[in-house]
C-alpha cells in the first residue's frame, strides 16, 4: 500500500502562466484591448469596477489559452482535500510498485477528475501485466488490481536470452535472478514449442531436474543437455517412449552416471553412446561388470 501526500496549501494565478502564456496575454482579442483603452480614458476613480472586470477577463483568457483549466481545477480540488492520498495495490509480483506508480500518474491530481480507464490502459502496456483494474474510492483512495503473465522458460535465440510465457511469447529480456532457474530453451522457434515440450519433460521428473538446457535441432527434434554435460539426442517422434527408455536405463544400469558424452535415442531399437576420445565401449561395460548395458552401440 502506498500513500501520496497532496499538501499544496494553495496556488498563485501568476504561477499558471509560462513564457508562452505571457505572450498570449499580449495578444488579447481586439474587443478586450478596446475595452482597456476606454478604461484608461475614464477619469481617475471612475474605472475601478471596469478595471477589475478587465483584470478578471485577462486572467481567464490566459488560463484558457494556456490550457490550464484542468490544472486550475485539480489544484483547487486537491487543496480542498480531494487529492489521491492512498493507493491499494494487489496482484503485483514481477512488476515493481515504482513501475505501477509511474503509470498511475497521480501526483497533484484530484480523485474527482482522475481517469481510471486511461490509467488502466497505461498499466496494460507494462511487460508483465496482462490486465489491470483501477477503481476510485472516495474521498481520496485508489484501488489497483493487476494480473501478470507467468514466466515459463528462458529462450536463447542467437545471442539474446528472453523470458517467455506458456505460449512462447516474449515477456522481457532476461536480466538474471530471480528467473535463472527456469527451463532453458535454445534455438530459433524453440519458444513456439516450449509448452508441449516442457509438459512432456515434466512427466519424467528424474530427467527434467537434471536438464540444464534443451536445444531444438533444425526445428524438428530436441537435444537435452544434462547437468553433468551429457547430451541426450531425442527422436522427432515418440519422445515419451524414448524418455521412458532413458529413465529405465538410468534406473537399471546407471547409464547417465557413466563416463559418456552422448546418449542417442533416435533409433527405436537401440541406444547409441559416444564415449570420450580414447575410450571404448568395453571400457563402459567394465565400469559395472555385474550389469550389462542393453543394446548399447557406439554413436557416430
From TrEMBL:
Keyword Cell cycle appears in the UniProt entry: yes
Alphabetically ordered keywords of this record: Cell cycle, Cell division, Cell inner membrane, Cell membrane, Membrane, Transmembrane, Transmembrane helix
Membrane topology: Single-pass type II membrane protein
Record localization: Cell inner membrane; Membrane
Keyword Transmembrane: yes
Pfam families: FtsQ_DivIB_C (PF03799), POTRA_1 (PF08478)
Primary localisation category: membrane
Source species, domain of life: Bacteria
GO terms (BP aspect): cell septum assembly; FtsZ-dependent cytokinesis
GO cellular component: cell division site; plasma membrane
Ranges that cross the membrane: none
Residue ranges constituting the POTRA domain according to the UniProt record: 82-149
Similarity comment text for this entry: Belongs to the FtsQ/DivIB family. FtsQ subfamily.
Entry function: Essential cell division protein.
Name of protein: Cell division protein FtsQ
Species: Faunimonas pinastri
